[in-house]
């Protein structure tokens, strides 16, 4: 076991993946010499060289498109999109090419591209630098979409994403980059890794299920601790994978608790929570004691720093939703 | 070059020269002060400083009318000041306050004021060039003689949007000027890693529009190139691309460790080719402007920035209800 920040855990995961497979390479803006603006690729160019850790022009569409070409020719490129908002210039290649090309080849073509996106707010940045664009990508068939929430998962999930033969959109909670935890980096531990696309109960409980992913997992765990003082037993699930979704684990939990609250930073309207709520309603209808409730951002571009604490779901808003669940 | 400087200096009336100096000095003081204030932790978010590049914003905006438009970048304070945005309102905006020019909703990277033709700073590199094509097309279609200028960095010049815009503007013969502020680094990455060709201006050739390179530290060189391009655009002669070679004095953003720089790079630029230094040397040496007159402006500018910071610190924060306004025209 070693103590790592989330950023360092991804760094170690990338390093391990590059050591394991010479076809893995990294490309992105300032990822090489600088080591990335969040230092996630720190030291990798020094150790693996400029041909495997590539500083690119500011050209997100070109970065992803090039990665597609590399993947067509047998490589496993990992693209870093510097900030969430910068993925929109790359959305063209991601949605029109990356997500579609395997289908055109009737499955013969594999595109093992990972697009890493630091996402979410909480660092005082504004629009383009604090966004949660996951629903655009979960809506796009052909992409796998995952979101890590803690260092231990991040270390494992980035390696699994790289090994995956399909394109993976990999969300990293940027405000949690500096949070530390124990990570088992021993090669033997790999045998016990859960599948990339499994959810996990991170806090068991019996009264209500709270679903979260990425940066909101910790917020929900704190809410669950607070709710315990009020005598409420909150089960928190870290979804980890948004597409495909671990429907079985979610269904099992909600059928047990009869109540469900979904929490994400992205605006509630047409957010990923809408898909979750619809699915849970379909699969748990006769078990539900209350409507599935959602907690998320408001329908506004991501606000500037002085307002972001009001925008971001916090402990109070999660607890309020939990309370409302019990009002039915 | 010094001769040109000299001649250009003489071609400008004294009051104009003092006005241009005041713009550059205001930008410089604004940025130097932000550099200090940011270090205290009181300024939220990201701040990208324009110090070192003042001659470009000042040189272009000096040739624009109030009803002309500019589109800016993430490094937009200089453009905003030069186009006439209220300095105190800008400072309050950067502090995230309700009294800010965008009511605290934009911050440093999204300052906009359409009343003075400032379409906005922009958090997306390459976000601005297509916008000025639209503004330019409107001017052409309705027969006004307005001009639109987009500022882009060397990094932004590699975005598809920039190259698409060059083509659109050339095909439609738009009254637009594309300015590339080549400040030496795309964020932290030097040109040899990200830029094909020595001059971005050469890309203009391929699209059939004039492209020139000027020294971005030299106000008079920028002013002359800007004047020619803007007059051509206004007269229906179509778009131009002007690349200004320059060096930014601070990091890509405040807090940037700048490990990518050569030793002494900034110190050398500040000592030998600083735009304010060059401007002062040429105007004072030519006997047009007195040193005391420049120092008087310095003093006034300093007082303005002091006031702007003091007022910004005292100003109220936006209230939570502000989150849900202005997203749509009507609800």
UniProtKB/TrEMBL annotation, chain A:
Write the record's keywords in alphabetical order, separated by commas. Answer: Oxidoreductase, Pyruvate
Is the keyword NAD in the record? no
Against InterPro entries, the record matches this protein to: THDP-binding, Transketo_C/PFOR_II, Transketolase-like_Pyr-bd, Transketolase_C
Q: Which GO terms describe its molecular function?
A: branched-chain 2-oxo acid dehydrogenase activity; magnesium ion binding
Q: Which cofactor does it need?
A: thiamine diphosphate
Q: Does the keyword Repeat apply?
A: no
Q: What is its EC number?
A: 1.2.4.4
GO annotation, biological process: branched-chain amino acid catabolic process; response to nutrient
The record ties this protein, via Pfam families, to: Transket_pyr (PF02779), Transketolase_C (PF02780)
Q: Which residues form the Transketolase-like pyrimidine-binding domain?
A: 4-179
Q: What is the name attached to this protein's record?
A: 3-methyl-2-oxobutanoate dehydrogenase (2-methylpropanoyl-transferring)
TrEMBL record, chain B:
Q: What is this protein called?
A: Pyruvate dehydrogenase E1 component alpha subunit
One of the GO biological process terms: pyruvate decarboxylation to acetyl-CoA
The stretch of residues making up the signal peptide is none
Which organism does this record belong to?
Thermocatellispora tengchongensis
Q: Which keywords does this chain's UniProt record carry?
A: Oxidoreductase, Pyruvate, Thiamine pyrophosphate
Name one matching Pfam family.
E1_dh
Any idea of its EC number?
Answer: 1.2.4.1
> Can you tell which superkingdom this protein's organism belongs to?
Bacteria
Q: What class of enzyme is it?
A: oxidoreductase
Residue ranges of domain Dehydrogenase E1 component in the record: 24-319
Single annotated GO MF? pyruvate dehydrogenase (acetyl-transferring) activity
Q: Which cofactor does it need?
A: thiamine diphosphate
